[in-house]
Amino acid sequence: NAAMEEEVTALTTSLERCHFKKDAEEGVPKGMFKVTDDMTFEYLVGRGLEPWRAKLLLEQARLDKRIAFEQAKLDEREALIKEREASLNEKIVFLQKKEADGQDKTNNEDPLYSSG
């Protein structure tokens, strides 16, 4: 009975590895199978992937994480630039209105060089 249980366990493990490998091979190109950078090479190979494929998928996961990090930094910088641009546009509108109202002559200040 113990030998039979061992055989069933071995077959189950083999079947799981086969399904994992098939899911990875078919799912990765479709974006349906995700390998994350916290997975290990040993884990992926232990689940049935060929070593070259495991290494490739782990490197891709690391690159994807780096790209996401750099994209977040870029998005943050773009938001800051837009914020500064909006602030400058507000100042330009204010200065143009001030100039149009003739108020710039009362304080003898050139609106383009004011520190406002």
UniProtKB/TrEMBL annotation:
This is Dynein heavy chain 5, axonemal-like protein. The lineage of its organism: Eukaryota, Viridiplantae, Streptophyta, Embryophyta, Tracheophyta. It comes from the Eukaryota. It comes from Corchorus olitorius.
